[in-house]
Specification:
The complex is a heterodimer. Chain A is of the alpha+beta class. In chain A, 22% of the residues lie in helices and 22% in strands. Chain A has a single domain (4-198), classed as 2-Layer Sandwich (Alpha-Beta Plaits), CATH 3.30.70. The relative contact order of chain A is 0.27. By secondary structure, chain B is mostly helical. Chain B is built from eleven helices and two strands. A two-stranded antiparallel sheet of chain B has the order 1-2. Classes of the chains: A alpha+beta, B mainly alpha. The interface between A and B is large, with 52 and 40 residues.
Chain lengths: 200, 295
């Protein structure tokens, strides 16, 4: 069985946030809620000052602590490693948000409108999540099931994201991870994330 | 130039998902269960009733904190891994066994001997007491496994919550004793026991602070906030000072001098101070829960 994962090359990410917008467009996430985003930081001093970027999203961990603490079973893991939330089961207790060290989850209290004057026809058509639940990146599972890449991977103009099967040693994602010594965020937490970073 | 992964030492983030409703539950749930446990020891029906009522209020507040309170029953589905799920069973068990135990104590109720004093009754009391202990400590286990928030990631919390819950339960009993029907309570004895519990709480809290002082980045920042930062005055002045040390010092006359009027007035003030310190402690535990920097 596949174990889906992602490698992100920090050497070629330019911080354009195309991935952020592709994610919002794909899932019509409510205003203020980002399933994926690009963290920015300014480092160094003039004349050597520069901005650095770190794209972040749910790490779809092999040992997801969010699933362990969920009291209802709303958070579950598919056989291919993708961690999902069943909105019909979620209580909105936010224990998963407290347990996850990566902070990709958001509580949706209601009113998904991005703009002040209520939901747009696009939002009304795309937003199928109920109020009072927790949401997060789902690796664009509908696209993946159709054999497509997640929207952020598809959109990235620099191709800094590579998505694929980590269990297949011949896949591009596995080869990149092995060749460039990819490392996950906060490996000491023992959650075995499926999102890795190279470069930097 | 490319980003270096170790340059993203992003500042620690405070948790803001669990607020005053959860804090109030931690306080009332623990205190209610503690009071019920003490009522079993004292065989005081009305103290037990009050304990369950306090726990009920806390549980309602917890339900109100849920994004979808009407789905609360789904929280019983994952006891194999989730401490919240286990907690739901503990609370339910305490309510069920507690109500049966109190019903059997009801005045005027004539019970057969095997039900009023036999092995079955003893087993019921032990089971109800066990359920109360579980309700007092499980919230510590909800916090302790969190790999995200190092300040919570400690084996001390279940023990600290047990000690604080017992302390608060007895304090509620002291405060309400003039109004409670039933046999009169020995305030002197209760107050003397409170001093031991205060010393235990003090040792546990200081031990936790000491251990966390040399722990992960976010835990050290939590300790800095508590001892030198934004929350220092509330922690040192409120939790440690007003909530533990001042009651301990003021209690000396109560322990060593048996003047009934002094005892009554002073225990009332001491109980208020300790309850204030208990609530403040649970508030600060939530407020200084910080996530480790992302990288």
């Amino acid at each position: 069985m596949a174990r889906y994962g992602m490698v992100i090359d920090l050497d070629i990410c330019i911080g354009c946030n195309a991935c952020t917008m592709a994610c919002k467009s794909e899932h019509a996430t409510p205003g203020g809620i980002y399933w994926g985003k690009v963290l920015e930081k300014e480092v160094g001093k003039f004349p050597a000052a520069r901005r650095i970027f770190l794209p972040v999203l749910c790490n779809h961990c092999k040992n997801p602590i969010c699933m362990e603490v969920c009291p209802t079973g709303a958070t579950y893991q598919r056989e291919d490693g993708i961690v999902l939330i069943d909105y019909d089961l979620c209580l909105g207790c936010r224990s998963c948000m407290e347990a996850c060290p990566y902070g990709p989850r958001a509580f949706y209290g209601g009113d998904g409108a991005y703009y002040e004057n209520g939901r747009t026809p696009f939002e009304e058509a795309k937003q199928h999540f109920p109020e009072g639940i927790v949401m997060k990146c789902n690796f664009c599972v509908d696209r993946v099931d159709q054999g497509l890449n997640p929207a952020c991977v598809q959109t990235c103009p620099t191709e800094c994201r590579i998505f694929g099967d980590l269990d297949d040693p011949q896949s591009e994602v596995s080869r990149m991870a092995a060749e460039k010594k990819a490392r996950p965020l906060l490996p000491e937490k023992g959650l075995e994330p499926s999102v890795f970073y190279i470069g930097g | 130039m490319a980003a270096r992964i170790d340059e993203f030492l992003i500042d620690v983030r405070p948790q803001r998902e669990w607020g005053w409703l959860v804090i109030s539950y931690l306080f009332l749930g623990g205190a209610g269960a503690g009071l019920f446990l003490v009522s079993l020891y004292l065989e005081h029906l009305w103290a037990g009733v009050l304990g369950l009522l306090v726990l009920l209020v806390g549980t309602v507040l917890l339900l109100l904190d849920l994004g979808r309170p009407e789905r609360f029953w789904r929280a019983f589905f994952r006891p194999q891994t989730s401490w919240i799920s286990r907690g739901c069973f503990f609370i339910t068990l305490l309510f069920v066994l507690g109500v049966i135990e109190l019903a059997l104590q009801w005045p005027g109720l004539e019970l057969p001997a095997w039900l009023s004093e036999g092995t079955l009754r003893t087993s019921l009391r032990v089971a109800a007491g066990g359920a109360a202990v579980l309700v007092m400590i499980y919230t510590g286990f909800v916090l302790a496994p969190s790999p995200a928030i190092p300040f919570w990631n400690s084996a001390f919390f279940p023990i600290i919550f047990f000690a604080y819950s017992l302390l608060a339960g007895i304090d509620i009993l002291i405060l309400t004793s003039p109004m409670l029907p039933g046999p009169s309570l020995d305030l002197m004895l209760l107050e003397r026991n409170q001093n031991y519990l205060v010393i235990l709480c003090l040792l546990l809290v200081l031990s936790h602070v000491s251990v966390m002082s040399s722990s992960a980045v976010a835990a050290r920042e939590s300790i800095r906030l508590l001892t030198r930062g934004r929350w220092a005055s509330l922690f040192l002045g409120g939790v440690i000072g007003a909530g533990l040390i001042v009651p301990l010092l003021l209690a000396l006359p109560v322990v060593w001098e048996a003047q009934v009027q002094t005892v009554f007035a002073l225990t009332f003030i001491l109980a208020l101070l300790r309850l204030f310190g208990d609530y403040l402690f649970r508030f600060l535990v939530m407020r200084v829960g910080l996530y480790d920097p992302l990288l």
